[in-house]
């Protein structure tokens, strides 16, 4: 039985499905929703804009808030409270750095735009291949 589950989330449908999977299949686990801010993009826009903020941590938390609010609202439908955490940097690297603190990672099969997937690569694939704990890929 899994007691601690990491669910990396962005605002994609697949990330939402990953949270749904975790809530339905691991109802007694402590679920942590991780949102990574400042990821590279095809034009560098998001990462560059974040770097120009006076308080990077506060700006990252603000950008993650909508994802966290949606995750909390959805988890409340299952009578579950989720823990949230925001990280700065590249999504796959940030997820892999946190993974060893959990029993498993439940991740959406893909997220972001098509151009981001082509330039950055598939985050779920990188996590699946390199995670120190089991990875469940939700579709």
From TrEMBL:
The family annotation for this protein states: Belongs to the universal stress protein A family.
Native source species: Halomicrobium mukohataei (strain ATCC 700874 / DSM 12286 / JCM 9738 / NCIMB 13541)
Instruction: Please provide an example of a Pfam family that matches this protein in its UniProt record.
Output: Usp
Mind telling me what this protein is named?
Answer: UspA domain protein
Protein origin, superkingdom: Archaea
Domain UspA: from-to ranges: 1-139
Q: Which InterPro entries match?
A: Rossmann-like_a/b/a_fold, Universal_stress_UspA, UspA
| UniProt-listed Gene3D superfamilies | HUPs (3.40.50.620)
The record, for PANTHER family, names: STRESS RESPONSE PROTEIN NHAX, UNIVERSAL STRESS PROTEIN
């Amino acid at each position: 039985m899994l007691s601690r589950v990491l669910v990396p989330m962005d605002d994609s449908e697949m990330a939402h499905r990953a949270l749904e999977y975790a809530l339905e299949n691991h109802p007694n686990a402590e679920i942590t929703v991780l949102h990574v801010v400042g990821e590279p993009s095809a034009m560098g826009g998001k990462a560059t804009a974040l770097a120009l903020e006076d308080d990077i941590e506060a700006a990252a938390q603000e950008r993650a808030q909508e994802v966290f609010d949606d995750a909390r609202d959805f988890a409340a439908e299952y009578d579950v409270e989720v823990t949230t955490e925001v990280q700065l940097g590249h999504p796959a690297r940030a997820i892999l750095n946190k993974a060893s603190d959990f029993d498993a990672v439940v991740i959406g099969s893909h997220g972001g735009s098509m151009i981001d997937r082509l330039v950055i690569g598939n985050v779920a694939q990188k996590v699946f291949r390199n995670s120190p704990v089991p990875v469940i890929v939700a579709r």
